[in-house]
Structures are given as structure tokens and as C-alpha cells.
Structures
1.
Amino acid sequence: MLWPFAEKDPGICPDYKYYYNLAAGHFFILTINSAIMQNIDWGKLPFGYFQTDYNVRCYYRNGQWGEIEVSSSTHINIHMAATCLHYGQEAFEGMKAYRGKDGRVRLFRWQENARRMQRSADGILMARVPEELFHKMVKKAVSLNEKYVPPHGYGAALYIRPLLIGTGIQVGVNPAKEYLFMVFVGPVGPYFKEGFNPVTMQIVRDFDRAAPLGTGHIKVGGNYAGSLRASERAKAEGYASVIFLEAKEKKYIDEAGPANFYGIKDNTYITPKSDSILPSITNMSLMQIAEDMGMKVERREVAVEELENFEEAGACGTAAIISPIGKIVDRESGKEYTFGKKGQAGAWSTKLYNKLQGIQYGEEPDPHGWVSFVD
Ligand SMILES: Cc1ncc(COP(=O)(O)O)c(C=O)c1O
């Protein structure tokens, strides 16, 4: 490798090949030794970034999308006046590829992610990624990195991160004329270290995630930036995540951190309806499964006091699928709400989780046609 790069081992991980950028003064990882493939402990993967071999990219210029490009670089080269850096023209998606017992790799309801990304694009005036382009690029990113799709039986999956950013230059507040859509992937384990064991969450009243008529219903970076202070504080205080309330009246539950909330009472699955929560594809699927299992489903405002009557509660999303909630503490009043037996997920939550994962991993029939194959 030519100057200014030098191979150097900082002694962090023997599986990576590290290079030092002498000019910029920092390390970066360029390649992974093939040995890492044998070293991946599929059962102990965290939920985090994991470098794989390729990502795919496509640029929107002069009013149209170009050709799909494959890259092995982990970096993107963008102009310093790109709108994603200044005015938050950025949206992303989160989805997973699951390997079935038969070895085949499955996507789950990719169309919903494609459509949600279009709604995100519309919401902050970015170019829409056509559904077919989205599908092609997701499939390509997964197949090029197929060896990183965890084997069946470890509860792990290949996380897929589609990302759309404004790359066009603006200094006045205007939408860009150019965009980059890219997809990268990496194997992941459970989102919460507790896995499918109950977590404790904290209701906050001194922070809002999203404004009532703002961007809470779409998946744009600003919402997550806005949630960081509350969620880091909650973690420091010993909680897995924050429960955000609807911002206007502070009476109703909005979201459980980066996941939707549900409660269960009298065989009824109850989940908040609000204009400032992200419509979760996992939640949408759980509502259908709950109905299929004979439960009643209610999507409506959920007042905080109702928590007292819930037999079970959970957070749901692609990352955790379901994270059962054992206890919720209202930070302001100190009031505590507990659900189910200590340390145990509730019966309905367990059934819903097993059914949904069964469909995703191809172990259960797929009556609604949610699963499609990558190959
Ligand atoms: C704020 C927020 N709510 C809910 C979800 C869950 O959505 P999904 O089930 O589509 O992953 C996510 C994750 O994408 C999220 O970031």
C-alpha cells in the first residue's frame, strides 16, 4: 500500500488488518483476514457494526437514478456543503435477512421498508428510491455478503441498512438536487443484552423524541439525534431504554426508544396510535399474528395510567423483534409499573415472538406471504 498508508497492528483484534493513515493520523480497517469467518461466534454476536466485504450504491443526478455500483470501501466521498451534513436530508431503514433451516436466505416484508423509505423521502423532500431499485440493491448487498448471513439456529441475522442522503450542495436551506442511496449489511445478535428476557424502561417527561406535526412518523436521522440525550441518561441510570410520551399532552405513550410499544390485557394486544410514532413493520406483523391467534387488537391512544392494568408489555422492532418489558419507572414521579413474573417473558409475548421468528426463519407457514427469497 502506498504512502500515506502504513500497515500497523494496534493490537485490538487479530482478525482485522489495520492500516494507519499517516496524513490524517488515524487507524482504519481495510480488510478482514479470512480467518475471521471461522472466528465468528454466531451465538455471541452483539447488535453493532460489523464490516463485511461489499456495499452497493446508486446516485441520483440530473433527475434520475444511475447504475448500481458495488464498492468494498467503507467510506463515502461527499461535498462539505452536502445537504445531509447541514440540513438533515438523511433517511435510513433497518431490516434483516434470515437463514432458514434449508440454508436459504429470506427477506421479511421488504416492500414495507421500501415504501417507508419513500415516505421518509417525501417527508424531507428527497428523491424517492423506486421500489424495484430498493429491492435489487438490498438483494445484491445480501448476496454479495452471503457468507456473513448467520447460520440457522443461533438467533442471529444479517442486518441490512439502506441509507438515503442528500449529496447535492446547498448553503441556503433548500433540498439537494443530488442523492446517494446505498445499502450495507452486517451480522447481528440481539439488540438488548437481555435478549428475550424482560428489560426495565424509563418514562421521561423532560425530553420529546418528536413534535406532534414533526417527523416522528418517518425514519430520518434527526429523530434519533433528538432522542440521544434522554436515552443515554436512561442507560446511565440503569434502564435499557426510554419510553417517550406524545409531546403535546404528555398523557399518552408514544414509543419505547427505537421500537414501538405494546401492552396486553384480557387477551387483547394494545398498541399506541399517534402521528408522531414510526409505523413499525414488526408491530404491524404482530398485530396480524395476534389476530390470527384469536386475540383482540386495539390500536389507539394508550394513557400512561393504563400501564397499571397491563398483564404484559413489550417493545417491538426489527432489531429486538420483541423485547419483553418487566418494569417501567416514571422518572418524574418515581411510580413503578411491573408486568408478569419477575425475570420472565409473558405467555402471549412468548407466543407472538416464537410465531413471528418462526415465519422469518422459515420454520412456520407464511400465510400472509411476508417472506421472499434472496436467491
Ligand atoms: C423509532 C422507531 N420506532 C419503531 C421501530 C421499529 O420499526 P420496525 O419494526 O419496522 O423495525 C424503529 C426501528 O426501525 C424505530 O427506529
Note: The CA atoms of residues 160 and 185 lie 5 Å apart.
2.
Amino acid sequence: MEEAKIKRLKELREKDRTEDETCELEALEYEWGLEIFRRIPLPTCCKAAQMYPAVLFSQSVYEGDSREKEGRWEAALSESMRRDMFRLHGIDQFDWFRNRPAAEFCPFCGEKLPKMRRKKTFPEMTCVVTDGGYYCDTCQQRLSQCRCYPSEHAWEPDTSEGGTT
Ligand SMILES: [Zn+2]
Ligand SMILES: [Zn+2]
């Protein structure tokens, strides 16, 4: 999404809007939603991994400062599926997150998933959680309302050793 559109989006979110501006904002929010989704790292080994995300790179928001935590490749589950898993197995969600296994290979093509590293500079407009999973420090909203890039946007594949560059 271009810089000018992002600027306009921020402007529209904050001002008293006319009806036309509300429509404009809705269209921009829709585009922004796709932009957020695009920033979640997915395996790049094959088309299937991109089109039918079964694993994604993820950080838990429930412990400590999200800028310092490790991330891992893991099963992509919907919020409702997670909740059902907690209920079904009578487990504590914090334990569940802590113990979730890391995925090592792409389930479609069998390629080893890349090692990830933090980007050298922490990217702007990215969600930061330091309170154990309630609010985003970047936008000051509750996490369920946060429209920042996901904290995983701060990661990239580590191509320094054995990589292609
Ligand atoms: Zn693959
Ligand atoms: Zn936020």
C-alpha cells in the first residue's frame, strides 16, 4: 500500500468524516486489512504454502516483550479452532501456547522451513506487546482492535548462512 494512501488512512481515521469520507475510509481499511495479512511471514518454498497457509511464522503475545521473544513456524489455526482445542482438552491457553510444537518442514513440498531473524531495524507501524497480551504499545489499542502490522512483520528469512544470497 502506497505511502500516500497510508497517510490518508491515518488522516481519515482521526477526523470528523463526511459520508463520502466514511466510504473512502472503509475502502482503505479493507486494503489495509489485506496489507496486514501480507505481512505475516509464510513459507515461500511453493505456491501451495502461500495459497493454503498451513504453517506460518508466529510469536506468542502472551509472554514478555514481543520485540525480544523468539518466534517459530507453527500450525496456522483460526481463533475459534484454538478455543475449541482448549475446551476439548481442558487445557490452559497459556500452557498451550508455551508448549506448541514448531513446524520444521513445509507440509506440501517437504522443504525445510527457513531460519528467521529479526529485521535490523524494527519496522514502523508494527504491533508491540509488553503487558502479557492485552494492549498494543504502538497504537495503544486492545489487541483485538489493533490494526498495526503483526509483530511477525519484524522478522525475515535469514539468508546469511547456506542461503541463496
Ligand atoms: Zn512448500
Ligand atoms: Zn497496534
Note: The chain has a mean pLDDT of 90.
